[in-house]
Write a structure and sequence with these properties.
- This protein is mainly alpha-helical and 91 residues long.
- The chain has two domains: 2-32, no CATH class; 39-86, no CATH class.
- It has helices spanning 2-15, 22-32, 39-55, 60-78.
- It is flat and about 60 Å long.
């Protein structure tokens, strides 16, 4: 019966917005964001996954999944070009 009271308090706090102001919400949202990995990191991760799957027995489905992912990611990564330093300067 103490649980009922706790549940009601939880529901009330959610309906009231949790009692937090927008500043706390902004900070929480910033904490949830992460840095996008570089192309080198992506290819490194794929390589690690592939080597692990190939070293294990009965991992054919994992190898196929890695291969499928790689087929999607590699063309997307090839479309991204590294910016030259001269691109920042106009003539």
């Amino acid at each position: 019966v103490a649980t009922e009271e706790l549940d009601k308090e939880i529901v009330r706090s959610i309906r009231d917005g949790g009692g937090s102001d927008t500043k706390d919400g902004d900070e929480a949202q910033q904490d949830e964001t992460c840095d996008v990995p570089s192309g080198t990191q992506v290819f490194g991760a794929i390589d690690v996954l592939r080597r692990y799957a190939l070293a294990q027995q009965n991992m054919e489905r994992a190898v196929e999944a890695i291969w499928s992912y790689e087929r999607v990611v590699v063309p997307a990564m090839q479309q991204q070009y590294q910016t030259k330093i001269t691109d920042y300067f106009t003539k």
